[in-house]
Design a protein that fits this description.
The chain has about 170 residues and is an all-alpha fold. The chain has eight helices and no strands. α2 packs antiparallel against α7, α5 packs antiparallel against α6 and α6 runs antiparallel to α7.
């Protein structure tokens, strides 16, 4: 084969190699490791442990209560996407409800949507009473998300938030 023929055959291959170098494969979405414990159980336990003198329980619209109960049934049955959809419907009816936002955050944890879980927990805390069981669940959600992300300083700050949720009662003699 002559040199001219070789150059003519090699030119398209060389051009393809050069163009291939201009493109790169997009980085894979960073997947966080699976936790070694039930994060939602830990979140709810933090709320159950909180025996603060303050526990705000707002009245609910019956349609919101029905959606909430259906979402809880869906979650117990392992239908997390259905539970999320029902809570989203409830949030449309009762926008900015701190307790619904926290419940939706907990379902987001079940769905492995950790960024949404932390965002909703922070939103719930900012709109909520910032004391008592709901507050403890908000901050424990943030603790769990920070630990999952490997953010030890953030988790320590969030643990302090859990402690700050407690308001001791007045001693009675």
């Amino acid at each position: 084969m002559s040199v001219a023929v070789r150059v003519r055959l090699a030119t398209p291959a060389l051009a393809a190699l050069l163009l291939a170098g201009c493109f790169s494969v997009p980085p894979q979405e960073q997947r966080l490791p699976a936790p070694d414990h039930d994060m939602v159980a830990a979140i709810r336990a933090a709320g159950a442990r909180e025996q603060s003198v303050i526990d705000v329980a707002p009245l609910q619209d019956p349609s919101v209560a029905a959606l909430r109960e259906a979402a809880q049934a869906d979650e117990r049955a392992g239908r997390y996407a259905d539970a999320a959809a029902r809570l989203d419907q409830a949030l449309k009816l009762s926008a900015g409800s701190p307790d619904l936002l926290q419940e939706r955050a907990e379902v987001a944890v079940r769905l492995h949507d950790y960024a949404t879980a932390e965002r909703l927990a922070r939103q719930s805390w900012s709109l909520g009473p910032q004391l008592g069981p709901l507050c403890a669940r908000n901050w424990q959600t943030i603790v769990e998300m920070r630990l999952l992300a490997g953010d030890q300083p953030g988790a320590a700050t969030a643990r302090k938030g859990v402690q700050d949720c407690h308001k001791p009662g007045v001693p009675r003699y």
